[in-house]
Amino acid sequence: MSHLRTEGLSYGIDGRHLVDSVDIEARPGETVGLVGPNGSGKTTLLRCVYGTLAPTHGRALLDGEDLHAMGAKKRAQRLATVPQDGQAVFELTVREVVAMGRSPHKKFWEADTAADQMHVREALDRVGIGALADRAFPSLSGGERQRALVARALVQEPALVVLDEPTNHLDIRYQLEVLSLVRDLGTTNLLALHDLNLAAYYCDRLYVLDTGRIVADGTPEEVLTPDLLKRVYGVNAEVSVHPTTGAPTVVYLPPSP
Amino acid sequence: MSCKTPPARGPLRYTLVLTVLAAALAAAMIAGLALGQVRIPAGQVVEIVTGQADPSPFRTIVLDVRMPRVLLGAIVGAGLAVVGTVLQALVRNPLADPYLLGISSGASAGVVLVIVFGIGSGLGLATTVTMPAGAFAGSLLALVLVYTLARRGGQMTGTRLVLAGVAVAYILSALTSLVMVTSAKREHFQEAMYWTLGGLGSARWDMLLLPAVVLAAGTCLLVALARPLDLMLVGEEGATVLGLDTSRFRAGVFVLTSLVTGVLVSVSGAIGFIGLLVPHAARMLVGASHRTLLPVVALAGAAFLVLADLGARVIAEPQDIPVGILTALIGGPFFLWLLRRRPEGTPA
């Protein structure tokens, strides 16, 4: 478990700020959600955190260490992510794709040991696709592929997991499964989510991003208010506490005539 | 990308594939030694090679004329196939090949400049040092040029890469021909075709050492780099978040592949399409993971070029046609099939 903090993190191209002086924090063991409309800067912010973009200002710190200065290998030993372009060109098997998660812990010339293979098998079983280990990765359905990538993050043995819309294009059943999996990893998690009800149920705290700035943060109850939804998303909504889940539930209302 | 499940792979199957390919290579080499204007029975070839034959009238033909050529074919075929495999992973594009990306043409141009300007010939270093060095410089330059052109404006698409490669290849081949044809020396005129189309006709025992060493060292190093090569298959961002410094890795392997290509081209000219054809066939057999893929690719590439060169020698007997013509005749249609198979707009 690790502590993630950003300090005045900004990212801009051509003088336009996609992410503007963002301070967020995920405390050890917390699952923190990042919500906001399309184009609000969620993906850019996550990329600055997992290191494929260099912040133009500010820093992202993992247990006090600058994530960008850390270097790809050291970063990958502590931070796992499932990027959106994670598809292989050639037909690697599911097992091979998941085993890639061991890479940050290996010298480049080292082959996988029996212990590594055990890790991979366990992770595949844990995400429920043990039977698909020898299938070609591109032949899997979207949900199976997503679960394989979560398994890959698992074998990486990270302290922090960063996920960008992990439930995109998944059937509702797999959305719930993937998010439950992530929450039960026992790691510190930072996820960008589209669906506010899923975010409310699965996240300990939420940050709301709008045009690159954090406009609200707190527990789902504190953040998801009709007023905020009107302001940020431009929709009318009712928010109530769900009797079964105990989480805030958002019901969107059609535009009033 | 097709979505069929590849056949189950196990260590047993892998050993079988390696054994069959090694046997195929051996058979191809024996055929290469036996066939030609003078046909020698295969049994006698084996006896000569293993030193069991009584002084045979065919000894010189087998050992001094055909053997270097067959060995060079095996070395060049293995090397080009390995380089093609690695390039496909590095640029994440199944259409990559040292010839199609202009790297071989760059190497040819480098060699030709060395020949025409006689660099190092006064010191007797032309074939051993300056020609391979010129080829290496030319191939590295061409590769960097093509990669930069294809990447301009962010994303690199397959179409852009192939177009940039073909354009650079054309320009450099034209340059090679121009320099050779306008050269004051008459024999350069004939050599132009050899360097742009590729051939193994000039093989001699004393030119085998450097390519053999470079091939062996390069292939071992690339097998050792199998893990990061695999990571490149999941894309730039995917590889980065799995701990690979992609730009440094790519730069290093670009230099290595240019070195191997350069040395090979300096002894055989620019032979095309092996680096495209062989990796795909090998992936269908043993999958895409480089640790198991590269040895298969090397064996298959060697067998393929030895056979193709045999074809080049006997198809229009007594004419010895450049083997690059044959590989292009086989590889070109395969390339078109790959293009058709891939739906428009996919980055791969």
UniProtKB/TrEMBL annotation, chain A:
Domain spans labelled ABC transporter: 4-236
MF GO annotations: ATP binding; ATP hydrolysis activity
UniProt keyword annotations, A-Z: ATP-binding, Nucleotide-binding, Transport
CDD domains: ABC_Iron-Siderophores_B12_Hemin
PANTHER family per the UniProt record, alphabetical: ABC TRANSPORTER ATP-BINDING PROTEIN, HEMIN IMPORT ATP-BINDING PROTEIN HMUV
InterPro entries per UniProt: AAA+_ATPase, ABC_transporter-like_ATP-bd, ABC_transporter-like_CS, P-loop_NTPase
Record-linked PROSITE patterns: ABC_TRANSPORTER_1, ABC_TRANSPORTER_2
UniProt KW ATP-binding keyword: yes
Top-rank taxon: Bacteria
Protein name as catalogued: ABC transporter ATP-binding protein
Pfam families: ABC_tran
From TrEMBL, chain B:
A cellular component annotation (GO) from this entry: plasma membrane
GO molecular function per UniProt: transmembrane transporter activity
Keywords: Cell membrane, Membrane, Transmembrane, Transmembrane helix, Transport
TM annotation in the entry: 12-35, 70-91, 103-126, 133-150, 162-184, 205-226, 253-281, 293-315, 321-339
GO biological process, one term: siderophore-iron import into cell
InterPro entries attached to this UniProt entry: ABC_BtuC-like, ABC_transptr_permease_BtuC
Predominant subcellular localization, coarse grouping: membrane
Membrane-related topology note: Multi-pass membrane protein
UniProt subcellular location: Cell membrane
Protein family per UniProt: Belongs to the binding-protein-dependent transport system permease family. FecCD subfamily.
Protein name, UniProt field: ABC transporter permease
Source organism: Streptomyces finlayi
